Amino acid sequence: MVDQALSRRTVLAASSVLAAGPAFAQAQPRRGGTLQVAYNTEQRNLNAAMVASNAVFLVASKILEPLADAVYGGVGLTPKLATGWNAASDGLSITFELRRGVKWHDGRDFTSADVQYSALEVWRKLSNFGRSVFRSLETVDTPDAHTAILRFSRPTPAQLIWNALPDLTAVLPRHLYEGTDVAQNPRNQAPVGTGPYKLAENRPGQFVTLERNAEYWDAGKPYLDRLVFRVMPDKGAISAAHEAGQLQLSCFSSVPLADLKRLQSLPALSVSNRGYEASPYHALIELNLRRTELADVRVRRAIHHALDLPRVVADVFDGFGTVGTGPVPTTSQLFYTTDTPRYGFDLARANALLDEAGYRRGAGGMRFQLKLVPAPWFDYTVLLGDYIRQALRQVGIDCQLQRFDAPGHLQAVYRDHQFDIATGSPVFRNDPAISTTVLYRTGTPPGVPWSNQYGYASQAMDQLIDQAAGELDPIKRVALYHQFQRLAMEDLPVIPAVEFSFLTVADRRLRNVANTPRWAMSNWADLWLDA
Amino acid sequence: MKPGQLGQVVRRRLAHAVPVLLVVALATFGLLKLAPGDAVDVLIATGGGGDAALAADLRRAYGLDQPWPAQLAHYLWRLVQLDLGYSFVHNRPVSHLIWERLPVSLLLMASATAFAVGFGIVLGVSAGQTPGGWRDRLILSVGLVLYAMPSFWVGLMLILIFAVKLALFPVGGFETAASDLTGIARVLDIAWHAVLPTVALALLFVSVYLRLMRAGVVEVASADFVRTARAKGVGATRILWAHVARNALLPVVAMVGVQAATLLGGAVVIESVFSLPGLGRLAYDSVLARDLVVLLGLLLTSAVIVIAINTVVDLVVAALDPRVVAR
Predict the structure, then answer these.
(1) DSSP assigned state of A273
(2) Closest Cβ–Cβ partner in A52, A201, A447 for B48
(3) Are β-strands A226-231 and A249-250 bridged in parallel, bridged antiparallel, or unpaired?
(4) B38, B41, B180, B282: best mutation site toward chain A, by most A Cβ within 10 Å?
(5) pLDDT in tens, A13-41
(6) What is the DSSP string of B24-42?
(7) How far is the alpha carbon of A167 from chain B, nearest alpha carbon, in Å?
(8) How large is the ipTM?
(9) Region A64-183: CATH code
(10) What integer is the mean pLDDT of B120-147?
């Protein structure tokens, strides 16, 4: 990751040198212009403090700001609504210095009361991931208008809170939410924030228009006059609009995989997988341990050995991905360890393990039959299902494919556990405690998506997860997560097959594209359109 | 047509409408209850995840924890009061959602029907005048090709040729986003956006209407009254339009009523391909979100539209052929 960030900076430096030749003035950001952005999955709730998801952030992060956002290099954080932060050594409080002179889009002053309200009433109670991260948040003291002190009932690792800042700390205007039912507040469709752009019009099914906030605290920014997020549910139409020049930007792989090669060859467009490093996905293979055969770790390892993952990366992911090695992705500089058990592609070994487990080949060369349920979330998770079926046939496991639409899949896999093998696509959100350990911990009731629905239960694992969740020393905490990764790969309840992220298709005249590790979900204050 | 007959047609239609609407409501409710997963599953999943307590809270808030007969009774009771209900997925009343999308769908339906019927009649008459001739064979072959092409593919091809390569039309959308256009400029802008989706949706139906029209023209042309007219010395053009075409038109008009429903259904695909915010897409999204209330509201609205169109069709048929009412 350090290397990547460095090489990225070198590349940027190199390209600016090239641009500097004949027209040096061009490097100066140009004010003005309208940006047409594809909005592939329209959201009904744009309250980013409540719903931490990519599609919400794509639009809402330009309006509502978090305390801090992610950047490449350094400590990885850049101040937004907070200018400084400091954790007490006992892990019981964190003090935030808040930015002065910030105004809400309706003209009111932004103060510590807004942070207090958002933390206590929204992050802690309603946010999908905040509910666990801020579980032991007890009070928020506001000694003055620009200081907020978060107080916890139990020691909470500061490292976890820092890692949660970009995704889980969007601040809402207290004066518009207090005393209302937050989930039903009409402001969720027309948010009022402090960000560089303010909502101009939200026409459901058609577009969301944002306008430049001339009063933005970062004087001079943003550069663009207008952002138009056009609701376009058909990916083919998005790539056609790119080709016709009627769209300047689409994020989160909103074009069909089959069109990528053609779009890449167009001189007016750039296709890149940068800017998603802070939210890498795993294409996960989930093995239901309630099934006798899969409860045997030798069978699970045999399944891993039967998969030729480099080929999957090349064929299924068109090269835009890396072979997964554990529950923490390689892009996490802080937590990733290479020291985990590996199960390379080895059919002989897979067959031997299956024989050893007592499942001999029977009629037709098959050992047993499994129900395979590929997740409908991405083209990748569907195609991976097809691959698994072919790969496992070679070692004598016969998979029956069963496909559902999104609600059907949620019920079959997460509520009823009616599957033997499923594919999935969890996100790593900067810290294993946010959305990763839940995949291995016992105790999540059925029906909760993206949890341990395959019935993995290990006391050692539970202890390790709990210990790390309460560990205040950042070095020790990281060491515990290294152990967590090793144990996860030894027991192998799920196979983190491939790490992937998304692609951005952008007009080449756009400047400052993908310059942060969660760029599509950042505020785009420095984005500008060259003439 | 006499006023009494008009009233008779309308009354007959309305008497049919009530049981039809009830069946539509019950069938939709039953089918959606049979589909796996509910709205809360989807809400939580699209929100990136959540815990079990959150799911339970939401189910209670939306009344999904009630047994299904209670949910159905509640829904029907509100329906009797002409209240389509409230969508928790959208956080808005269903009637607002539908009202907002209705113009888009009606515009698309009306323009596609007009296009299909217009071209179908002209081509059908043209083909039917000389059955077996080169013009007939050419038109029939083209019609067959049009009929065989799936509308989403036609839509994408139209986009590729007329929006991407020739840049004559926009790729999609109902109107230019955030254009601030008003009055006649806005109407023209909407019409400009409607051209490609109208053609994509209508092409399939052109072939249906042209075949019906052609068959009618061929059949009627050999009828006794046409021979009589010719013997009286009526001009060829007048015979063709006033005698032949008018009679051949009856099945075409009847078909419009039947296809109104198909058009509403077929619009789902076209609305997606052309990024149009119509009822079809709202229905599709509602199925995926298991948003039962909206879907029920939509199907009832569609049923009302179809019934209304069929009533109009009955009136037109009666006007064209007074014998129909007597039956």
Answers:
(1) -
(2) A52
(3) unpaired
(4) B41
(5) 333 333 333 334 447 899 999 999 999 98
(6) HHHHHHHHHHHSSS-HHHH
(7) 12
(8) 0.78
(9) 3.90.76.10
(10) 88
| Token pair 């009022």: residue | A192
What amino acid is encoded at B210 in this protein? Answer: L
Helices B246-273/A235-243 angle, 10° precision: 80
- Tens of pLDDT along B214-265? 988 888 888 888 888 888 888 888 888 878 888 888 888 888 888 877 777 6
pLDDT digits (tens, 9 = 90+) for B64-81: 777 888 888 877 888 778
Q: What is the dihedral of CA A226, A510, B48, B54, to 10 degrees?
A: -20
The alpha carbon of residue A97 is apart from the nearest alpha carbon of chain B, in Å, by 30
Q: Which of B35, B100, B273 sits opposite A234 (nearest CB)?
A: B273
Long-range contacts, stretch B189-198, CB < 8 angstroms, 24+ apart:
B190/B107, B193/B169, B194/B107, B194/B108, B194/B111, B195/B169, B196/B155, B196/B158, B196/B159, B196/B162, B196/B163, B196/B169, B196/B274, B197/B108, B197/B155, B197/B270, B197/B271, B197/B273, B197/B274, B197/B276, B198/B108, B198/B111, B198/B112, B198/B115
- Cα three-residue angle B297-B299-B302, rounded to 5 degrees: 110
How many Cβ atoms are within 10 Å of A111's Cβ, its own excluded?
19
Cβ proximity of B299 and B24 under 8 Å? yes
Q: What is the largest CA-CA distance in chain B?
A: 85
pLDDT of residue B17: 80
Phi, psi of A32, deg, nearest 5? 100, 170
User: Given an 8 Å threshold on Cβ–Cβ distance, is A246 in contact with B46?
Assistant: no
Candidate from B51, B285, B290 with C-beta closest to A131: B51
* Closest-approach residue (CA) in chain B for A57: B47
* Mutation for A interface: B32, B46, B88, most A CBs within 10 A: B46
Which backbone phi and psi does A312 adopt, to 5 degrees? -60, -45
- Would you list the domain boundaries of chain A? 28-46+195-278+502-531, 64-183, 281-500
Q: Please classify residue A474 by burial: count the beta carbons closer than 10 Å to its beta carbon, then call 0-12 exposed, 13-18 middle and 19+ buried.
A: middle
Chain B CB contacts of A34 under 8 Å are: 178
Q: How many other β-carbons are positioned within 10 Å of the β-carbon of residue A3?
A: 8
Q: Distance, in angstroms, between B91 CA and closest chain A CA?
A: 7
How do beta strands A147-152 and A93-98 pair? antiparallel
A370 contacts A292 by C-beta, under 8 angstroms: no
Q: Which residues of chain B neighbour A228 with C-beta distances below 8 Å?
A: 177-178
Q: Are the beta carbons of A53 and B159 separated by less than 8 Å?
A: no
Q: At A326, is the secondary structure helix, strand, or coil?
A: coil
Chain B residue numbers with beta carbons less than 8 Å from the beta carbon of A226 are 178
- What CATH superfamily is the domain A28-46+195-278+502-531? Periplasmic binding protein-like II (3.40.190.10)
Which of chain A's residues have a Cβ under 8 Å away from the Cβ of B31? Answer: none
- Asked whether the beta carbons of residue A407 and residue B37 sit closer than 8 angstroms, the reply is yes
pLDDT band at B316 (very low <50, low <70, confident <90, very high): confident
Q: Which helix (H) or strand (E) holds A68?
A: strand A68-70
- For chain B, which domains are there? 104-279 (1.10.3720.10)
pTM: 0.84
Alpha carbon of A453: minimum distance to chain B alpha carbons (Å): 13
Identify the CATH assignment for A281-500 out of 3.40.50.360, 3.80.10.10, 3.10.105.10, 3.40.50.20: 3.10.105.10
Our CA-based measurement puts residue A141 at a distance from the nearest CA of chain B, in whole angstroms, of: 27
Q: Among B47, B274, B282, whose Cβ lies nearest the Cβ of A51?
A: B47
Single-letter code of the amino acid located at A66: P
Q: Which of A63, A89, A87, A358 is nearest to A192 (CA)?
A: A63
